[in-house]
Write a structure and sequence with these properties.
It is a single chain. The protein is mainly alpha-helical. It has a single domain, classed as Na+/H+ antiporter like fold, CATH 1.20.1530.20. Helices cover about 75% and strands about 0% of the residues. α2 runs parallel beside α11, α7 runs antiparallel to α13 (about 305-310) and α9 packs antiparallel against α14 (about 320-330). The chain is globular. Mean pLDDT is about 85; it is low at about 380-385 and about 390. This is Sodium bile acid symporter family protein. One of its GO terms (cellular component) is plasma membrane.
């Protein structure tokens, strides 16, 4: 009888242990889904885009609507949640502006040119249009969407990221064509496929139209709404968690990008080995640009500003790459134009995926400082000039 009781007792202990392990596993999965839901959703959206696409005849109107509407939502949300005083204070940080823009244009483009030069040693290794696509990617400005959303999720200085996005995209039509012309004038074999259109007036028109309609106007409206209705606005975006609209808008942009790419047959026109190579190079470039930015900023910036810079410097605006590649060069077929944009299309997924993972890392980094401050009696945690820095 005593032996049976011992066996039964051991079974109960084992059952409790197994139940605890299962419960811990479930809890960890719930935490992962809650913390990285954006990354999981992005994977699902790309899978859907690869199987079902909007008809080709409706692609232009779909691209225009989704791009303008999504970016407008992101900047309207930021206009409603960021203090005008803090935005103005961040516009005055000219040293950080110079630091970020020099990296966004000169450092990233120089490293991209170095990679392209190595890959171009054999004309049979990679298509010329793909190599030029890497140059366009390196010379493009920081994105106006994902870096703002990710900075907020990572508890960085969102206001600084907004300001850098505005400055970077404003400089785009002036700096990007010049940088591209400089790198393409090296006489490399891959530049022979291009016929320059030099249509700078069209570039300026497109860029400033997009800046005005999808950035400045929504941002200004958001600031007015916040000023006139401060309490209701805070209730809507904080208590009702409507700041998540930024994340959903970014997901719509990702869907639009890959829906267009799969519909145009861009990936079918490139060798599978080249696609794999582009993925690895894009990942390597992102981490290289990120590492340089982080190492150069840790000595003189606060953690919130470092996070903002780390999202701005390695990120690239696909919304600028597409119109730039379309208007800068003439007599380019649809297939070749798709090849030209593939490095940037894949990089879009890479920067959002890695950026999403890094939000948890940066939040832990910020929390460590906050815990140290609390132990030292230094008061409440610092904000970025908006409201609650919750994970959205």
């Amino acid at each position: 009888m005593a032996k049976d009781q011992d066996v039964s007792s051991h079974k109960n202990v084992d059952n409790k242990s197994n139940h605890t392990k299962r419960q811990n596993l479930v809890n960890n999965l719930k935490w992962l889904i809650k913390d990285q839901w954006f990354l999981l959703a992005m994977g699902i959206i790309i899978l859907i885009a690869s199987q079902v696409q909007v008809p080709s005849s409706r692609q232009p109107i779909k691209r225009t609507i989704v791009t303008y509407l999504s970016v407008s939502i992101i900047f309207f949300v930021n206009g409603c949640t960021l203090s005008p005083r803090v935005l103005l204070a961040n516009y005055k940080k000219w040293k950080i502006h110079a630091f970020v823009q020099l990296q966004c244009y000169l450092v990233t483009s120089a490293l991209a040119f170095a990679i392209v030069s190595l890959c171009a040693t054999s004309p049979t290794f990679m298509d010329a249009w793909l190599l030029i696509g890497f140059l366009i990617l390196g010379s493009a400005p920081t994105t106006m969407s994902s870096n703002v959303v990710m900075t907020r999720q990572a508890h960085g200085n969102t206001a600084l990221t907004v300001v850098q996005s505005v400055i970077g995209n404003f400089l785009c039509p002036f700096l990007t064509p010049v940088l591209l012309q400089m790198y393409l004038s090296s006489g490399a074999w891959y530049s022979d496929v291009l016929v320059s259109g030099d249509n700078y007036a069209e570039i300026y028109r497109r860029v400033f139209k997009q800046l005005g309609l999808s950035l400045f106007v929504p941002m200004a409206i958001g600031q007015v709404v916040q000023y006139v209705f401060p309490a209701p606005t805070k209730k809507v975006f904080v208590d009702w968690k409507m700041m998540k609209l930024s994340s959903f808008a970014l997901l719509a942009l990702v869907w639009q990008t890959f829906d267009q790419a799969f519909c145009s047959g861009a990936f079918d026109s490139v060798k599978a080995s080249n696609i794999v190579f582009i993925v690895f190079i894009d990942i390597a470039l992102y981490f290289l640009w990120l590492s340089i930015c982080f190492a150069a900023s840790t000595a003189w910036l606060s953690k919130q500003d470092i996070i903002a810079c780390c999202y701005c410097c390695p990120s690239k605006a696909l919304s600028m790459v597409v119109p730039l590649s379309s208007v800068m060069y003439i007599n380019v077929s649809a297939v070749d134009l798709s090849k030209l944009q593939i490095p940037a299309i894949i990089f879009q997924a890479v920067q959002v995926a890695i950026g999403g993972i890094l939000t948890a890392v940066f939040r832990g980094w910020i929390k460590q400082t906050e815990d140290d401050n609390e132990r030292n009696g230094e008061g409440e945690r610092k904000q970025d000039g908006g409201w609650s820095q919750e994970s959205v």
